């Protein structure tokens, strides 16, 4: 399957999104009006591009998030937020989107309804990175002061939990500077994630407990990172343009720290700081402040193709199927469209903008457009029921996909809840032992005093 590379910068809104054919290097499309900070672009289920926009100097308004459907990339939904959003992240199933702000506030939206499910003060410094765990049960956030926090979604989405600041599963302060990347991994026996920082290190953490498992030290600040698709190597981009290759064998590591100077595996081809890294089927793709993006053969250590971005350096990259940009005949369309709505500006907002979404339904005669007002995700079930009445194969397909995803989500969520329960029980036991020790010390002190 052919793939396309989508890139954007943060110079100004006129730069927009540029899309290239990865295989040939041909320019495919330009989408005007987009400028996003680092980690400000995400792809929803290979159907939509979502990008937070930079805050214009002198502007007193809040922020804005653009959403482009692949079927109509030049038409965007514009969602206005209370404040400018920097990094954003979405779950793999495209159900939730999270955004972080300079104020340290975090926001979580439900994509289908656009409902702002949660907003809270998560960090005391600007949020720089966000990532959902692979099963969407946990949200990880990083900030400029080097702090990393893991949040359980099951608690964040509970309306009864008003004080979200008390709901963090773990807080880590081992990094001494700006967090530049967060990568969940599931390739090892335990759930872990990797963090990178301008302090020149990458660290591996146990996902639930927040235990530091491994630290790699590099001679330069690390500005971006990515794991290869098989999660055998970690690629870390640095401030001087080098890309370091590190074996990712967490389960086999005996040493708690590792110096990259001990193992000379690096890619050289950029003249300035690395700004973004991603993988496609053809290999590693890197972007730099030298205003280029490079496709690498990592085995040979050579550049296969160089993409020149004359409108400024690239801050974000995503890889999408090339076919998603092409219109398909009716008989080839599948009912897999993820419905989206305008994202609410305020929580508990009943009808913020009368936003609507359009679903394209295949038909034996003509293509129909049905517009629904989605107030919650529960209405998606009603749509399935309506389609079943018509006995369409699309209804069966949608129902099967929904059931499979729900069962997978419940299974993984249960696993993490069990792990969290075990972790909390361990902490409770430690507190109990500490209390007993304090009582014993206090009793001895009183006995000595009486004597």
Any overview of this molecule?
The chain is an alpha+beta fold. Helices cover 16% and strands 38% of the residues. The chain contains 3 helices and 31 strands. The protein has helices at 153-156, 378-389, 393-450; strands spanning 3-8, 17-21, 27-31, 41-44, 48-52, 63-69, 77-81, 85-90, 96-101, 105-110, 116-121, 127-132, 138-143, 148-152, 170-172, 179-185, 192-197, 201-206, 212-217, 222-227, 233-238, 243-247, 257-259, 266-267, 274-280, 283-288, 292-297, 302-308, 316-321, 357-361, 368-372. The strands form 8 sheets. The chain has a 5-stranded mixed sheet, with no helix packed on it. The protein has a 4-stranded antiparallel sheet with strand order 3-2-1-29, with no helix packed on it. The longest helix is centred in the C-terminal third of the chain and has 58 residues, at 393-450. 36% of the residues are buried.
Radius of gyration: 24 Å
Number of DSSP E strands? 31
Helix % is 10-25%
Structural class: alpha+beta
**Mass-distribution shape:** globular
Strand order of the largest sheet: 16-17-18-19-23
In percent, how much strand structure appears in the residues?
35-45%
Give the number of helices.
3
- Low-confidence spans: 330-335, 351-377
Mean pLDDT, to the nearest integer, reads 81
């Amino acid at each position: 399957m052919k793939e396309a590379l989508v890139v954007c910068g943060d110079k100004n809104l006129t730069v927009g999104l540029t899309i290239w054919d990865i295989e040939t290097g041909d320019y495919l499309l330009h989408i005007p009006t987009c400028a996003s900070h680092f980690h400000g672009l995400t792809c929803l289920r290979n159907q939509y591009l979502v990008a937070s926009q930079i805050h214009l100097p002198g502007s007193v308004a809040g922020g804005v998030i653009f959403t482009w459907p692949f079927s109509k990339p030049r038409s965007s939904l514009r969602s206005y937020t209370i404040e400018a959003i920097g990094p954003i992240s979405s779950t793999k199933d495209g159900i939730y989107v999270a955004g972080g702000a300079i104020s340290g506030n975090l926001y979580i939206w439900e994509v289908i309804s656009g409902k702002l499910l949660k907003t809270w003060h998560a960090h005391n410094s600007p949020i720089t990175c966000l990532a959902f765990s692979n099963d969407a049960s946990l949200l990880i956030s990083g900030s400029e002061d080097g702090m990393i926090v893991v949040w359980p979604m099951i608690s964040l989405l509970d309306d009864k939990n008003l004080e979200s600041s008390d709901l963090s599963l773990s807080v880590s302060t081992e990094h001494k500077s700006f967090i530049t990347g967060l990568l969940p991994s599931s390739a090892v026996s335990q759930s872990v994630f990797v963090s990178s920082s301008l302090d020149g290190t990458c660290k591996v953490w146990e996902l639930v407990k927040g235990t530091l498992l491994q630290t790699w030290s590099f001679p330069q600040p690390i500005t971006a990172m990515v794991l290869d698709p098989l999660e055998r190597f970690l690629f870390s981009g640095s401030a001087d343009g080098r890309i370091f290759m590190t074996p990712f064998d967490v389960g086999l590591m005996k040493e708690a720290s590792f110096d990259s100077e001990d193992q000379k595996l690096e890619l050289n081809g950029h003249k300035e700081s690395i700004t973004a890294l991603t993988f496609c089927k053809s290999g590693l793709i890197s972007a730099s402040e030298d205003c280029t993006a490079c496709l690498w053969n990592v085995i040979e250590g050579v550049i296969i193709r160089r993409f020149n971005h004359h409108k400024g350096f690239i801050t974000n990259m995503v890889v999408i199927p090339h076919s998603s940009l092409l219109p398909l005949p009716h008989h080839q369309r599948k009912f897999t469209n993820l419905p989206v709505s305008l994202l609410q500006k305020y929580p508990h907002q009943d009808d913020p903008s009368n936003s609507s979404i359009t679903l394209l339904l295949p038909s034996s005669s003509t293509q129909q457009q049905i517009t629904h007002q989605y107030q919650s995700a529960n209405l998606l079930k009603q749509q399935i029921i309506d389609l079943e009445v018509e006995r369409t194969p699309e209804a069966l397909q949608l129902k099967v996909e929904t059931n499979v995803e729900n069962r997978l989500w419940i299974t993984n969520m249960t696993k993490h809840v069990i792990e969290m329960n075990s972790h909390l029980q361990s902490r409770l036991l430690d507190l109990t032992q500490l209390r007993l020790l304090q009582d014993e010390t206090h009793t001895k002190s009183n006995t000595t005093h009486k004597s």
